[in-house]
């Protein structure tokens, strides 16, 4: 089932999310719905807060990036078919010189900006079967994981921009939070308070 994606301005996107246990109800169905929702919106990652759930869960499928002809064959190969579920993730180490990459977000449509992140990360997480992993990721895979990880920490990529950049996109962000945007996928907009 395709779920509506929560738009910028909703409080759930600013919450630090809670861990879940194996007893979390209907987890398999939730994961299925999240993958379907992400693919429907042509995303490469989706975090639970983006569908209104303040839990430490996100998923990633970097396959669309593997078609980028500017990448080396090895990079394309690494990205193709990289599909993961991250539950209760914790980035325990970030390494290397920060590099810029133009990021966007399904919760913030039509806004893309360069964000600086470190290229190599070490992550502790459990998968959909609650099997523990500690893995090192780099390049674009690390970048997608960092972006989704920020979501479960209550951080949006726009929070990482300079104050000048934030001022320049303020109008766009206000429009998104008011639902004044056309997108090709279902969205849920924050409830606007009526003016008295």
From TrEMBL:
EC number(s) per entry: 3.5.1.88
Keyword Protein biosynthesis listed: yes
Pfam families the UniProt entry points to: Pep_deformylase
Cofactor note: Binds 1 Fe(2+) ion.
Keywords attached to this entry: Hydrolase, Iron, Metal-binding, Protein biosynthesis
Catalytic activity: N-terminal N-formyl-L-methionyl-[peptide] + H2O = N-terminal L-methionyl-[peptide] + formate
Residue numbers annotated as active site: 148
GO biological process: translation
Binding positions (Fe cation): 105, 147, 151
Cofactor(s) listed: Fe(2+)
Enzymatic class: hydrolase
Molecular function terms from GO: metal ion binding; peptide deformylase activity
Superkingdom, natural source: Bacteria
Family stated for the protein in its record: Belongs to the polypeptide deformylase family.
Primary role: Removes the formyl group from the N-terminal Met of newly synthesized proteins. Requires at least a dipeptide for an efficient rate of reaction. N-terminal L-methionine is a prerequisite for activity but the enzyme has broad specificity at other positions.
Protein name: Peptide deformylase
Provenance organism: Hwangdonia lutea
Gene: def
């Amino acid at each position: 089932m395709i779920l509506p994606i929560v738009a910028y301005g909703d409080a759930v996107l600013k919450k630090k999310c809670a861990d879940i246990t194996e007893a979390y109800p209907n987890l398999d169905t939730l994961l299925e719905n999240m993958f379907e929702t992400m693919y429907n919106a042509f995303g490469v990652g989706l975090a639970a807060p983006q569908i209104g759930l303040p839990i430490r869960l996100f998923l990633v499928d970097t396959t669309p990036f593997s078609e980028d002809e500017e990448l080396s064959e090895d990079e394309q190969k690494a990205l193709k078919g990289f599909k993961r579920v991250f539950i209760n993730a914790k980035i325990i180490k970030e390494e290397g010189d920060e590099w810029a990459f133009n990021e966007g977000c399904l919760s913030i449509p039509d806004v893309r900006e360069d964000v600086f992140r470190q290229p190599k990360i070490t992550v502790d997480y459990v998968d959909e079967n609650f099997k523990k992993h500690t893995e090192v990721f780099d390049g674009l895979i690390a970048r997608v994981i960092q972006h989704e990880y920020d979501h479960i920490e209550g951080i949006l990529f726009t929070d990482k921009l300079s104050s000048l950049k934030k001022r320049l996109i303020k109008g766009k962000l206000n429009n998104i939070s008011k639902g004044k945007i056309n997108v090709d996928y279902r969205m849920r907009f924050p409830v606007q308070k009526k003016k008295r």
